[in-house]
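Open question from group meeting: does this chain pack into something compact, or does most of it stay loose? Before anyone orders reagents, we agreed to write out a predicted structure and look at it together. Recording both the input and the output here so the notebook holds the full record.
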Amino acid sequence: MKRPSLLQNIGLAVVLTIVAATAGILSFGMLSSTVSSKLIIILVTSIYLVRLVSRSQLRAGKFILSLVCPALLIGGGLFFEQSGSLVVMAAIMIWMVRSFLYYSSIVASCADLVLCLMSLVGFAMGFHSSHGIGVAVWSFFLIQSLHALIPERFGETGYAAEEDQSVHRFDRAYRSAEQAIQQIVKDGL
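Structure tokens returned:
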């Protein structure tokens, strides 16, 4: 499948924010704010990770990976006392899944790591400015939507591309010279 575009990712950020707001409203009064925040983080991150896996070109293991990611998040929700630690775990999982499924270079993966760190900062700023999970989720996934702008593999520099073409030209000339020598030897005998 094709990688999602920037607009598709922004649309997903809107949908995940609506899901987070709806879950927050439904859990208001029934659960503590910490438990509610953890459940919302697990829910929206699981949806995002399952979408990443389903849109990847992975042929085998999509179903298993789609089950393992939410299971790890649930385990993290039970293990971590603070929801902030769960958000860090979610960002690490998003980075790992995208690095393994979408990028074929270290540079692209490192650029995605920076994007995930920026998302964590956006989440923290959104949470502290609004004291609510909705703005934090919106900030986090809006910044995450920028991953569509990171190329799968960064292109070679001009020098490397020129060198590659010159090697190609040299190989053609070498083969041509070899054929000419073989023809001379064959005609001379």
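Observations to bring back to the group:
Residues 157-189 form one domain.
The chain has two domains: 6-149, 157-189.
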